[in-house]
Amino acid sequence: MDRKKLRTLFLHEARTYLKQCTEGLLALERNPDDSYQIEEIFRRMHSLKGMSALAGYTLFSDLAHAAEDLFERIRIGRLGVNQDVVSTILQTVDCMSLCCNRIESNQDLTNNDVVAAMTALTNALHGRANSTVANGLEKADDEDDLMAAVGEDLDFVQGNITGQPEHELSIKTDLIDYFFEAIAEIKILNGQLLLHAGRDRPDFLRLILEQNRFIRQLQDHLLTIRMSPLRRITERIPRLVRDYAMKLGKTIDLEIEIGHLECDRLILERLRSPLVHLVNNCVDHGIETPTERKKAGKPITGRIRITARPMREGFVLMVEDDGRGIDLSLIRDRAERAGIEVPEEKLRTGEWIVHVLCHPGFSTKETISHLSGRGVGLDAVKNIVEALGGRLHLYSQMGKGARCELVIPTLISTLRLLPIGLNGTMYAVPLTDIVRTFDDNPTRRSGEHCWRTGEIELPLVDLAERLGVKSKENRKAGKVLIVDAPQRRVALLVSELFAPQEGLFRPLPLPLSQSPCLAGSAMLPSGRPVLILNIAQIL
Question: With CB atoms 3.0 to 4.6 Å apart as the test, which of 39, 80, 484, 523 could cross-link to 504 if both were Cys?
Fold first, then answer.
């Protein structure tokens, strides 16, 4: 086999086995007598030893061999499973992951790459305690280094070719991206042909509509390949929580319930860092120490939950803990000391918490740690989520815990949009934000700034007036959108509504990208570009 192909195959298989080893080790730490996990980890280390020897990576093979020997002693009952033993094997897994990174970069492995892990394994084999359990946290300068050590390989996606699990093929994602972009451009060209076909050529019109149907089918099939399970970005979280909790002297149970939700791989890649930031906040800011929890009458072990549920055109990803909650008086005090001004409308809706906590450089930590205190994190989370066309919400109850919700679209390359007219200028609103539309009816008005739907009265906002869009003609607002704004629903007054359309998403260039009111741009099937409004920021 070609050397390059052999290396690619080895890296793909090795990273899969290492991820499985990490999951098995965390399960084994919770249940040290789990003979199934012991056998599975032993078998994977044996496979890693053979694969690396066959590929010519001797030092990697020696490391796997030593780990295999350690698990052989565990199998026959000559060594017990405890936290130190699990930490030693996790250090070995981290070392192997970093070796994979060096191999991928065409760098030769040296003794320096494996000496620390080999020493720890040797000490464990002979019953000697390791003076310092060098888990991933202590080896890493920051969370990015640790994420690299326990990260996932997303350069390939699994394409299910026949619908059966045994028939899968690894496909380069940049190739899928190219085909997806090409199909989107073809749809735009077809939309332009449809506009120019006219009703006097029914045969030509029929052919275009038939072609549109086949293009849609092709796009749907490509989309199923490009979609990835949401669980892929949560697979690393148990290890991170375990290491961070050990570092801080806390005990934490982690629950992950996300079902079988899938989303665009590009969204998954961008959600990795925000999810880690939110979990860090739960471990460092939220969950108290065992002593503090005991004094508060809580169980000594804290709890973090990561859940997800589907919604219109997207999903909601929630991270919550049962810790101390957000101290609103402390936030308010720090905000005043930092000179952070909170708009009156945000104070009225309670959205001031998000406004302050997501202010660049804001932190409630007195000291800087490897997890927090530098004033970075939530502002980065908010920026990434909004760049995806999503929203961030925070909820807290003092002494009970806090919850962060990320509302995320399923797709990023193509978005379902509702084009709207504001005084003769077209914009678009993501369908994920829209609850319902109405004709403007004076009988539904309750004053100048209130709209009534059923028994509920909603604040009414003239969108053109809020954005400062001047009228090109003497047009009056005649339509109403009911939208989901942060922590409330709002009625938006607009001039016109057009049929919902699928647009090809495009990020904005400078200086437009710096406008908080804009989420991006899109190319409609007609070929017309349109700006996408960021409703959460506007309101």
Answer: 523
